[in-house]
Specification:
The structure holds two protein chains of two kinds.
Chain A lengths: L6 H26 L7 H19 L2 H25 L4 H24 L13 E2 L2 H4 L2 H6 L3 E2 H19 L1 H11 L1 H6 L4 H26 L12 H11 L4 H20 L7 H5 L1 H13 L18
Chain B lengths: L2 H30 L4 H13 L2 H26 L7 H17 L6 H31 L3 H20 L30 H5 L5 H18 L1 H11 L1 H6 L4 H28 L10 H11 L4 H25 L5 H14 L3 H27 L1
Helix pairs in contact in B: 1-2, 1-14, 2-3, 2-13, 3-8, 3-11, 3-12, 3-13, 4-5, 4-6, 4-11, 4-12, 5-6, 5-11, 8-9, 8-13, 12-13
Classes of the chains: A mainly alpha, B mainly alpha.
């Protein structure tokens, strides 16, 4: 049990949950407005790449983060256009964005930076330890030397909850995801609300990607997201399409991954421990969390009468 | 044109147009970074089909793509998305390799069949039984369950050989399983270029599988029921089709073909499990099924197309200096344009509106001068 009092286990949990929670909430925004979004993986990769590039070119990791957000918004906008305006199959579109994202980032990495990877002098975002929190027993373990984006993630979780459930815009977004015809009849602009949801989602996913490249590291690697966008998809469903639920699920995954790192070198083979987060998800989906119901109009394009 | 011919033309038209769009955008990207698109695509093409060796390599790479693609197409036909074929492929590979180096003394052909059947069953259990049951009875979304099972399957394959005392590891420093005995390997096609490029008779297994899947989907009650479930679940239910059962079966068949692909690849090309578990076949095969629009014969063409992109991409990188990842960019664009099938009607409608507007403007102007 000494493993559970190891501060690194808990710091690792929060750190590993961050790049899952951000895209999971991003997906939540998109799907709450009725657009199925499995494109988080590709958008994260694009965010991660642009964050490093612009951090290197401008010397400022904050401008890198902004560039990542802009790139995420742009890709999400194209995705939204095809999903909403062209009424395309959203799952297939998401696959396209993921393959394209993996391809274009590898391609740009090699054409811009050559085959030796991104420059080692790239600046990364700062790590913060807040003295007041550090001395609190358990909470201090969680927040020991976390990147500034971890704190931003927690703020964004609360802001997203407030936006979705306590503002007029949030109510309208959810209405469009549940019953677009009724929303349209009441004079809401279904398409514009859906664009808003998808683009907010793209920005959040891209911040998740930036956390990987200029948060915990200062470099970009081909396919560095390593399936996190898909795990985030699971976290979103697991969290029943809510920001706090997504964070909870992300923390659970973070804990399982952090635990598998902490258990390395024990008698149990690493590969078996690494199965933990995935096995947990299957078990959770098979009934532990109860039925997770998607927004009613999720994935159904809405055609305007013109 | 008869309606049949027209539907075939329409079925072929979209994938071809999507590929053309992608190739044109790819050419613009290549030109923008200062290369000649014609040389780049030329090296891609000659790398994929330039001589017997490269043709062999392309066809060899197409075998797993065709087989897995067929399985994913079956699932799509039933309205379910098997996104976890990669893991089903590896679980099939584990089972086939295990059976291959156990049980000495069987006749080669029987041993091959047993090994492949083991792979198929393993894939079917991994892809069908577990996610299928979860989908049918607790409503767990198959995109999540097949994907999670896929990660577990890949880790299982790693576990089998990676650590010193791993269950299938052969003694020594290299993480690999024992070799599959010669008489259990699938023979290569009898030409020097094909032996060098490791083109085994697995290609015929893939072709036969496509015919079998076509017969199954189009000519049997089973296929009809699967298509009914995929087309309209509620109608299928009222027509008396056991929807849950057919969902499980479709996912199971899907996993079965992914497992078969793993077996064929092990017996035909790799000849053992070794420490490289990033095949990506399971993901590319999704795109194969999409581009083929779930047509079994389309899967053959699409499988060869993506295998050609992959083998040609390597040559392209060597000879023209353009990174091989360009082929992934192209793949992403192809899928995008396949999904955005409304794009062309939209563009046509936009032109028509513009033309109408011009004509109306013209008429008005004409009216003024007259």
């Amino acid at each position: 049990m000494s493993i559970l009092t190891n501060p690194q286990l808990w710091a690792g949990t929060l750190s590993l949950a961050t790049p899952l929670a951000l895209p999971a909430i991003g997906g939540t925004f998109s799907e709450r407005t009725g657009v199925v979004n499995i494109a988080m993986e590709g958008i994260m990769l694009i965010g991660a790449f642009f964050a490093v590039s612009f951090s290197y070119w401008t010397g400022s990791p904050w401008l890198g983060l902004l560039a990542a957000m802009a790139a995420g918004a742009l890709i999400a906008w194209i995705f939204a256009w095809a999903a909403i305006r062209l009424a395309s199959n959203q799952v297939v579109l998401g696959m396209a964005v993921n393959i394209f994202g993996a391809g274009i980032t590898a391609f740009l990495l090699n054409t811009i930076f050559g085959y030796n990877g991104t420059p080692p002098s790239t600046a990364s975002l700062p790590t913060i330890t807040i003295p007041a929190i550090k001395s609190i027993p358990v909470l201090g373990w969680f927040f020991y030397q976390q990147n500034v984006l971890v704190y931003l993630m927690l703020v964004l979780v609360m802001a997203s909850h407030w936006l979705l459930f306590h503002t007029r815009l949030g109510l309208r977004m959810r209405a469009v995801g549940e019953n677009p015809l009724a929303a349209d009849t009441l004079g809401l602009n279904v398409w514009r609300l859906r664009y808003t949801g998808v683009i907010i989602g793209g920005v959040l996913s891209a911040i998740g990607g930036a956390y990987l490249s200029i948060g915990i590291l200062n470099s970009f690697d081909v396919n560095m997201t390593d399936g996190r966008g898909y795990i985030a998809l699971a976290a979103m469903i697991f969290g029943k399409w809510t920001p706090f639920g997504s964070l909870g699920a992300a923390l659970l995954f973070g804990f399982a991954s952090s635990l598998s790192t902490a258990l390395q070198g024990n008698a149990i083979p690493t590969d078996l421990i690494a199965m933990l987060p995935y096995a947990l998800t299957v078990l959770a989906l098979a009934g532990v969390i109860g039925k997770s119901v998607a927004p009613a109009a999720d994935g159904i394009p809405y055609k305007l009468d013109r | 044109m008869t309606p049949g011919v027209r539907s075939v033309v329409r079925g072929l038209g979209l994938p071809i147009l999507a590929s053309l769009f992608a190739i044109v955008i790819g050419a613009i990207v290549v030109a923008a970074i200062g290369f000649n698109p014609i040389t780049v695509y030329g090296s891609l093409l000659s790398g994929a089909f330039g001589n017997l060796f490269s043709i062999g390599a392309t066809l060899s790479g197409a075998v797993p793509l065709i087989l897995i693609g067929l399985g994913i197409a079956i699932a799509f036909k039933a309205g379910v998305f098997n996104i976890g074929a990669e893991g089903q492929y590896w679980v099939g590979a584990i089972a086939s390799v295990w059976v291959s180096y156990h049980f000495t003394g069987l006749p080669g052909w029987l041993h091959i069949i047993l090994a492949l059947v083991a792979g198929m069953l393993a894939g079917a259990v991994w892809g069908g039984v577990i996610p299928g049951l979860a989908k049918a009875y607790v409503g767990a979304h198959e995109v999540i369950t097949t994907m999670m099972m896929s990660y577990i399957g890949i880790l299982l394959a790693q576990y089998m050989i990676e650590e010193p005392n791993a269950p299938m590891r052969q003694p020594g420093y290299i993480p690999e399983s024992p070799m599959i005995p010669n008489n259990v390997q699938l023979p290569f096609l009898p030409m020097k270029a094909f032996v060098q490029s490791q083109l085994s008779i697995g290609i015929f297994i893939a072709l036969i599988a496509a015919v079998v899947v076509w017969l199954l989907l189009q000519k049997t009650t089973f296929g009809f029921q699967i298509r009914t479930v995929g087309y309209n679940q509620r109608a299928a239910k009222y027509a008396g089709v056991h929807v849950a059962w057919y969902t499980i079966l479709a996912l199971g068949m899907s996993g079965l073909f992914a497992g078969l692909a793993g077996g064929v690849q092990m017996l035909g090309v790799a000849h053992q499990l070794n420490d490289s578990f990033a095949s990506q076949y399971g993901y590319t095969a999704i795109v194969v099924a999409l581009l083929a629009r779930n047509n079994p014969f389309g899967c053959i063409i699409a499988g060869i197309f993506f295998a050609a992109l992959s083998t040609g991409g390597q040559t392209m990188q060597q000879f023209s200096g353009v990174p091989a990842s360009l082929t992934d960019v192209l793949t992403g664009l192809v899928v995008f344009f396949v999904a955005a099938e409304q794009l062309i009607p939209e563009i046509r409608a936009w032109f028509r509106r513009n033309k109408d507007r011009r004509r109306i403007a013209g008429v008005q102007e004409g009216g003024k001068t007259a």
